[in-house]
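Repro:
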Amino acid sequence: MGGTIPRARVEGDATRLEPMLDLEWSRAIELPQAAMTAATPAELRRAWVHRAPEDSVLALFRASSGMAGPIPAPWWLRAVADGKLDSREQGFRVEDRIAQLLGPRPGWEFVPWAADGESGYWEFMPSERGKSGHAIPTTVMNTDRHTGWIDVLPAHTGRTPDPIPVAGLAGLRSRLGVFEAVR
């Protein structure tokens, strides 16, 4: 009978657990259900990646990214990890300035339920099902593809067109009349 009973644990016997990076990363970007009613990107910043120390966020992102290709993450985190953006705070400022520009303008609505980890996007609702008949409205979203940090996806039906890179907030402000002309 003595052979079937496991021996008592001693201090040096501590169980070793390897982190489950996929699960840990998923929890890091997870937003509470209440965030789905956010009207601005600032109201959406409730996940661990938004609040934890930036160096911890970067470390977990880099460890998780090394597993199996790209992982869901906010545009600003990819830009910071690539050395294109100096800090998470700079990314937040870009998002907040877009919100200050588009929020008060008629027809623009913030959509908080973007892809996992992303920061939401803005849609110009008059461009959807208006005279032009487009099924998908003009969309402004942040990107890490270029250092203007803003892409505009034109209103469309059918095949998704290539996004239009915009040269920052000044570029967006100067081209808003063109983007809003599609109705």
